[in-house]
Every structure is written in structure tokens, then in C-alpha cells.
Design a protein that fits this description.
Elements: E1 10-16, H1 23-31, E2 38-45, H2 51-59, E3 65-70, H3 75-85, E4 90-93, E5 99-100, H4 104-112, E6 121-129, E7 135-138, H5 149-154, E8 166-167, H6 168-173, H7 180-183, H8 190-199, E9 204-215, H9 225-242, H10 247-268, H11 271-284, H12 286-313, E10 323-324, E11 327-328
Parallel strand pairs: 1-2, 1-4, 2-3, 6-9
Antiparallel strand pairs: 4-8, 5-9, 6-7, 10-11
């Protein structure tokens, strides 16, 4: 097993398909990293817009950028292409519409120093942003470290493909991202499948801060709940076969994942997804739906009762938390770039448009 140098080369891999409207902002957030020993590989996945030329043009201002291309084959194949061409000890994937805090890579490398030879995977929390780069939510700030295989089965708390820092050799050992999911019409959980494979043998380190701006736009992969759930089921099937004692936990996770996508589709007014997901939930999870509804009603009534009692007793109402584990909680309605605008260079102002996705 090779070990990284004191300042290892990091290979940033960006799969890009019809991404000309957001790619510059993504590239700027990488160029602005405080850790600068990077190679930046943009993999054009058969785009039909100006993605390839835009990336090549950007490479004339940041010579760490190298542009690769392939026929359209999906995000997994594009990532794998970049990983094969990479020279770095670690791989840092980022989708062409997501953005990073300037200290993301540096803080992740610091977190990995707790492991012998830095051999592990680092992750952080994320802020959910819209097509304009405005925060509308964030990941649950879990504190899982070390052996995170079982917690990750119960909840995909990493949550996206633009967050982890992973040893390249271990990604290759695991076979990279599974392009076969796309071929089965179930694209979406390639990243989770890889994280679980890595978690079976490697420790994970957490950087407790919201360092990834994860963009949700109508039409992107993460917005297609029905397809994501099909992908999740295919990923979990062989794990259930290997670890039958974890079946109950995995089934519970699948219910919560389905419920999350249903609520998201309902909130977004995406009634095509709602019509697909509602009968699926009723058919597969009738008992869980009843239990969940009762639990939610009880929790809501309990919270309401506590607030009324405090008002009657003249006690101060609880203030919303603004920090967790020392990190500022992303505030809804603010720009992700505002989290570091006063401390770092400004990003390219391209976030007001919507990226194209496969």
C-alpha cells in the first residue's frame, strides 16, 4: 500500500453533461481552494452545448485543468474515466453544478491525518442550494466516524457525489462507480454504492461543517424520486444477501427514503412523481405509513403542548440553533457563497441559471 506525501496531489474529477450554465461557478470554487496542489479533470460526457469549449477556455486561466471527453455514457462512466486518468493519491469528485467552500479540501486532509498514513475517506455536511445558489436546507449534522458501514446503510448521510475525499487505489479496488445502474434504468445511487463498498474496509473521518453546496434543480438526477428508489433497491439487494441480519434496518431506511422523495415531490408540486410514489408507498409500506403518521402526530402535539405550557408559565421560548459542533448552520434564503464571501475570493457569478442534466 502506497502512502501519501506530506502534501499529496488531489485529483478533482468533474463529470459534465450540458453543464455550460453552472460549470464556471463549479470550477471557480475549485480554483479558489486554499489547498492548491490539485489536478482538475473535467470529463465532458458527450455534451451538446458549449461545455467542452468552456472547460478548455477556463483551462487557459488555471493550468491545473485538463479536459477529457467521451461519448455520452452517464455520470458513473464519466467519473470512472477521470479516475483512470488521474494521478493524485486522493480523488475528490464534484458534479458540474455543485460548489465547494474554499477550505473543503484542506480541512478534509487535516481530518484524514488521524488515520495511519492518512488512509481513509473524509466527508463533511452539505447545504442544499437552488438554481440560484440560494440555501433552502441542509443535511442532518450527524457525527459518524470510523466504521460507518451500518449507519450509512440506515441513512445516506453523505447524501451526494460532490463531498467525499477518497484514496484512488481503494476506489479502483472497489471497481469504481457502477455504470450498470444506468444501463438498468436505475441511475442515481452509484455514489452510495461506492461509499458502502469503501466503508466495509476503510475508516471515515468527518469535517463537521457545511462545506458542499449541493444543487437541486428540476430535472436533475436527484429530483427523480422513482428512479432513485429503483437504484437504491438494486444497490441494497446484494447487501441484504451478504448481511441478512441488517435486513430490517435496510428496509426501514428504504421506507424513510421513499417518504422523503414523496414529500419532496409534493412540496415541489411535481405531481408526476407524486402519482408514481404514492401507490408504491401504499403497496410496499402500509404498516410503516400508519406507524409513521401516528408518531408524527404525537411529536407535533407534544411540541405544541410544550410551547403552550411555556407561554402560560411565562418561560422564554427556545431559540433556533445557529451553530452545531462549532459550525454555523446554513440559513435558509442566504447565498451559499455568503458563508465565505468575506474570507475568500468571490465565485464566478453564473449561478443564476439552471444546469442541464442527464
Amino acid at each position: 500500500m502506497t502512502t501519501p506525501s506530506a502534501r499529496p496531489l488531489i485529483s478533482v474529477v468533474i463529470p459534465a453533461y450540458n453543464a455550460e450554465k453552472t460549470l464556471l461557478e463549479t470550477l471557480a470554487s475549485i480554483s479558489n481552494q486554499t489547498y492548491d496542489k490539485l489536478e482538475i479533470l473535467v470529463v465532458d460526457d458527450g455534451s451538446r452545448d458549449g461545455t467542452f469549449d468552456l472547460a478548455r477556455g477556463y483551462g487557459r486561466t488555471d493550468h491545473r485543468v485538463r479536459v477529457l471527453s467521451q461519448e455520452n455514457g452517464g455520470v458513473a462512466r464519466a467519473r470512472n474515466h477521470g479516475i483512470r486518468e488521474a494521478s493524485g493519491f486522493y480523488i475528490a469528485p464534484v458534479d458540474a453544478d455543485d460548489i465547494w467552500h474554499p477550505e473543503k479540501i484542506e480541512l478534509q486532509l487535516q481530518a484524514l491525518r488521524k488515520f495511519p498514513d492518512g488512509y481513509g475517506v473524509a466527508y463533511n455536511w452539505y447545504a442544499a442550494i437552488d438554481e440560484n445558489g440560494i440555501i433552502f436546507g441542509h443535511s442532518r449534522p450527524v457525527m459518524h466516524e470510523g466504521n460507518i458501514f451500518e449507519p450509512l446503510l440506515r441513512e445516506n448521510f453523505i447524501g451526494n457525489g460532490s463531498t467525499p475525499l477518497m484514496p484512488r487505489a481503494e476506489i479502483l479496488r472497489c471497481g469504481g462507480y457502477d455504470a450498470g445502474l444506468r444501463d438498468s434504468g436505475a441511475e442515481g445511487c452509484e455514489d452510495l454504492k461506492l461509499y458502502l463498498a469503501l466503508a466495509e474496509t476503510l475508516p471515515f473521518a468527518l469535517v463537521p461543517d457545511f462545506l458542499t453546496g449541493y444543487r437541486f434543480t428540476r430535472g436533475n438526477m436527484s429530483s427523480n424520486g422513482y428512479r432513485m428508489l429503483k437504484s437504491h433497491a438494486l444497490v441494497m439487494a446484494p447487501i441484504i444477501a451478504r448481511y441478512p441480519q441488517l435486513t430490517r434496518d435496510i428496509r426501514t431506511a428504504q421506507f424513510h427514503t421513499t417518504h422523503w422523495y414523496f414529500n419532496k415531490a409534493l412540496t415541489d408540486g411535481d405531481y408526476v412523481q407524486v402519482k408514481k410514489l404514492a401507490p408504491m408507498m401504499a403497496r410496499q409500506y402500509p404498516a410503516q405509513l400508519i406507524i409513521h403518521s401516528v408518531q408524527q402526530s404525537w411529536r407535533k402535539a407534544k411540541r405544541h403542548g410544550i410551547l403552550i405550557a411555556k407561554r402560560l408559565l411565562g418561560k422564554p421560548l427556545p431559540r433556533p440553533r445557529t451553530r452545531v459542533a462549532g459550525a454555523a448552520i446554513p440559513q435558509t434564503g442566504t447565498a451559499f457563497s455568503d458563508r465565505f464571501g468575506s474570507a475568500g475570493p468571490e465565485l464566478s457569478p453564473t449561478s443564476s441559471q439552471v444546469a442541464g442534466h442527464e
